[in-house]
Specification:
Blueprint (H helix, E strand, L loop, with lengths): L1 H8 L3 H17 L8 H11 L5 H17 L9 H13 L12 H20 L3 H20 L3 H4 L7 E4 L3 E6 L11 E6 L6 H12 L8 E3 L5 E5 L5 H11 L11 H13 L4 H8 L4 H5 L10 H7 L9
Helix pairs in contact: 2-4, 3-5, 6-7, 7-9, 7-11
Amino acid sequence: MTLDRYLEAATRENTRRSYASAVRHFEVEWGGHLPATADNVARYLAEYAGQLATNTLKQRLAALAQWHTEQGFVDPTKAPLVRKVLKGIQTLHPSVEKQAEPLQLTRLAQVDDWLGTEIAVAWERDDCADALRLQRDRALILLGFWRGFRGDELIRVQVEHLRLVPGEGMTCFLSRSKGDRQAMGNTYKVPALSRLCPVTATAEWIAAADLIQGPVFRGVDRWGHVSETPLHPNSLIPLLRRLFKAAGLPDAEDYSSHSLRRGFAGWANANGWDVKALMEYVGWRDVHSAMRYLDGGDPFARQRIEAGLPAPTLPSP
């Protein structure tokens, strides 16, 4: 049992869950057999080409590769046939990577103003459950934005791993994150701000929910009872979209938990942060990862091109 616990801890929960789902899809929904042959895997890819995104197919291959490796079988996904089929799918079914809509600072302020009003109204009418949920959501959004946390990082924040530094901010220790390959843990500094403050919002939620230890972001039932377990990762996107819609944001369905991270990255880039400082703050391992989040101040290069155009020729008098 102890060995199993350590082996399980070596893989991120999100990865375990998505890999298990991928293997189940191969076996149950498609009707494949494990261990698989290269021909089986190639036919599986061909079956779902055009239906599933290329990145999804690559994730399915990674899951199958891990299953075979862990079970001591030859990995069929490395076979030339499989690689050639995948290349053909990428050629015939090119796809544009869909990214979450970044949450702009003005819209963050709009959501926060709406939350502040709704929290006050909920407490006035003695609706403890609604007030607690709204305070939790306010803390989640502000902390997620200003720290550029991923969704799974937010739900793994622990009360006992937060430390307030009066007048400056708060430190937040995460025992593991996507960029932490060695699972050494990282301590993140969260700034105390004059408004839209993640430290104040988090402290107010913890005090209102009377949290002493365990996950910071938890469920609240209709009677106002706070759960002992964290929010489920799959609940974050519906939660944010519901809040954004209620706060009056247009196209609320275009947002996801990554919108907080992308929104902060865009704000920092527009306000003069150099890429190295932003990478260190957010936790990106390479420049390529950072560039996926940054649109720049002149995304279409319009200003640079316009500046090089020749002046219009004036008509002769």
